[in-house]
């Protein structure tokens, strides 16, 4: 980790001799330091799952949310600096409101994604502001178009995904996701699969403290509205994961 | 490793993706004297240890009222806290004016967190060097939030911030499961006991301990020194009883020792 970028890495306005902007790459590192978030596009909707590390026993359950609603029909899950994520979500909510005021119609997800990536990009242009240290997954479900999932990284690149993971364990999670048959999976199955990946593959019980699962979905069942997955379903999924472990033993 | 180069501006990431200026601002919070908060189902309490710069000066206040149903305890740069306090008071007052009701604690804490985050992203600004413990009662529920210079806010059952707060936190972690059902008196006693853990060599008096309560049918109130003294007396009384027990045990040990010497 020695000075590959030394001298060219203090401000986003400086290119290195090989054409890289190091401050933006360091912003990616900030995302990689945080716990993992997963998004899956299923047959009938989109499901988000976040591995939340519990830093203190005295924290109220469900605090420090990592998934947010924009309007009723779009959900955003963040990884990286939570405060930065909330700032972008605040901007997203403003965009959605303005669009609705102007067109009397709810904002389509691809329009929102493009506007957010432009917003994120602006912060990589000047030397007096720093890039956002967070990645976002944006998801929505439409009766006609079906489920959509996009991911915006700190360098403002926004790509559409069938399945996506961001944060510390994204490599392992992506490997597991690629094994799943997403086009045939329902959202209820996806809840179980995400729980399995986060609890077994990504979370290291020996190294890290306990984790809390935060999951949300936008699907046919919720009639296209972004809602938190009911606690009961999450508990069932966790039980199922434990059952799987016992079978393997 | 990269501290010296990447830690002078808030707008610079280190190669590991860290923002050192935010971490340093959190150090400023850790330098302030202890403030702790705890809540039950009906009441929320903050207890603070106040410092005075010399014998002739008064103790620096750490508890401030925001509105009838909400108050804060601070740790860190007092001047920064004043700015955030003014912001919170404005928000709550505005809400009352427009809607005629109390502003929910969670909402004002969220706005505060967003305000703090703005200062972490522009060059030329610095993060607020103060951590707040916000207690409030609204919607029939008690709330305790911690805000930090990074712009993160958390909801807690009990928390302690400031210097030597780890001892208080350890005490709170041992006991917090029984807090929800406690009445106000016992809750405050727990708070003062927790403060004693992190007071070190400093004796607690009615002048340097601050206590405030809010809850069901209890508007936010900073307790008067005499009331504080009554709680301190209760703590000293129980300690006195423990001391007498210990003295008796010590006497028995001494007798045993002298016996052994005689045998030798």
UniProtKB/TrEMBL annotation, chain A:
Residues 8-30 form the Proteasome alpha-type subunits domain. It is found in: Cytoplasm; Nucleus. CDD domains: proteasome_alpha_type_3. Keywords: Cytoplasm, Nucleus, Proteasome. Transmembrane segments: none annotated. The 26S proteasome consists of a 20S proteasome core and two 19S regulatory subunits. The proteasome is a multicatalytic proteinase complex which is characterized by its ability to cleave peptides with Arg, Phe, Tyr, Leu, and Glu adjacent to the leaving group at neutral or slightly basic pH. The proteasome has an ATP-dependent proteolytic activity. This is Proteasome subunit alpha type. It comes from Anaeramoeba flamelloides. The lineage of its organism: Eukaryota, Metamonada, Anaeramoebidae, Anaeramoeba.
UniProtKB/TrEMBL annotation, chain B:
Residues 243-258 have a biased composition (Acidic residues). Residues 243-264 are annotated as: Disordered. Residues 6-28 form the Proteasome alpha-type subunits domain. One of its GO terms (cellular component) is nucleus. CDD domains: proteasome_alpha_type_1 (cd03749). It comes from the Eukaryota. The keyword Endoplasmic reticulum does not apply. The keyword Cytoplasm applies. Keywords: Cytoplasm, Nucleus, Proteasome. GO terms for biological process: ubiquitin-dependent protein catabolic process. It is found in: Cytoplasm; Nucleus. It holds the Pfam family Proteasome_A_N. The 26S proteasome consists of a 20S proteasome core and two 19S regulatory subunits. Belongs to the peptidase T1A family. This is Proteasome subunit alpha type. It comes from Anaeramoeba flamelloides.
């Amino acid at each position: 980790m020695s000075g590959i970028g030394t001298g060219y890495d203090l401000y986003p306005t400086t290119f290195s001799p090989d054409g890289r902007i190091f401050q933006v790459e360091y912003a990616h590192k900030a995302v990689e330091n945080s716990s993992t978030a997963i998004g899956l596009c299923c047959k009938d909707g989109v499901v988000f799952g976040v591995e939340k590390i519990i830093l203190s026993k005295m924290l109220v359950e469900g605090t420090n949310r990592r998934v947010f609603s924009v309007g009723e029909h779009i959900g955003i899950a963040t990884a990286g600096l939570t405060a930065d994520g909330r700032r972008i979500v605040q901007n997203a909510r403003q965009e959605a409101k303005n669009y609705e005021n102007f067109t009397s119609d709810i904002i389509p997800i691809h329009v929102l994604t493009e506007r957010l990536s432009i917003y994120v990009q602006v912060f990589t242009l000047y030397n007096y502001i720093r890039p956002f240290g967070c990645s976002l997954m944006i998801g929505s479900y439409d009766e006609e178009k079906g489920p959509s999932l996009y991911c915006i990284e700190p360098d403002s690149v926004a790509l559409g995904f069938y399945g996506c993971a961001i944060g510390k364990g994204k490599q392992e999670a992506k490997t597991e996701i690629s094994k799943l048959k997403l086009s045939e999976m329902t959202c209820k199955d996806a809840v179980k699969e995400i729980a399995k990946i986060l609890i077994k593959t990504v979370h290291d019980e020996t190294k890290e403290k306990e984790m809390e699962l935060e999951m949300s979905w936008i699907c046919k069942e919720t009639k296209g509205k972004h809602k938190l997955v009911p606690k009961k379903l999450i508990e069932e999924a966790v039980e199922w994961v434990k059952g799987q472990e016992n079978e393997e033993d | 490793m990269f501290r010296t180069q990447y830690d002078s501006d808030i707008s610079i990431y280190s190669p590991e993706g860290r923002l050192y200026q935010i971490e340093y601002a959190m150090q400023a919070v850790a330098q302030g004297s202890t403030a702790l908060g705890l809540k039950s189902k009906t009441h929320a309490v903050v207890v603070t240890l106040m410092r005075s710069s010399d014998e002739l000066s008064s103790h620096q206040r750490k508890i401030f009222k925001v509105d009838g149903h909400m108050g804060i305890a601070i740790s860190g740069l007092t001047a920064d806290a004043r700015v955030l306090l003014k912001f919170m008071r404005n928000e709550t007052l505005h809400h009352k004016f427009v809607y005629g009701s109390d502003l929910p604690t969670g909402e004002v804490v969220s706005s505060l967190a967003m305000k703090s985050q703005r200062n972490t992203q522009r060059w030329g600004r610095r993060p607020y060097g103060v951590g707040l413990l916000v207690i409030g009662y609204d919607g029939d529920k008690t709330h305790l939030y911690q805000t930090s210079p990074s712009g993160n806010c958390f909801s807690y059952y009990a928390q302690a911030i400031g210097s030597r707060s780890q001892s208080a936190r350890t005490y709170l972690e041992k006991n917090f499961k029984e807090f929800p059902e406690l009445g106000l008196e016992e809750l405050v006693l727990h708070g003062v006991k927790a403060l004693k853990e992190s007071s070190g060599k400093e004796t607690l008096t009615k002048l340097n301990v601050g206590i405030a309560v809010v809850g069901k049918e209890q508007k936010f109130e900073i307790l008067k020194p005499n009331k504080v003294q009554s709680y301190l007396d209760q703590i000293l009384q129980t300690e006195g009883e423990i001391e007498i027990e210990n003295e008796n045990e010590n006497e028995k040990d001494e007798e045993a020792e002298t016996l052994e010497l005689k045998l030798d």
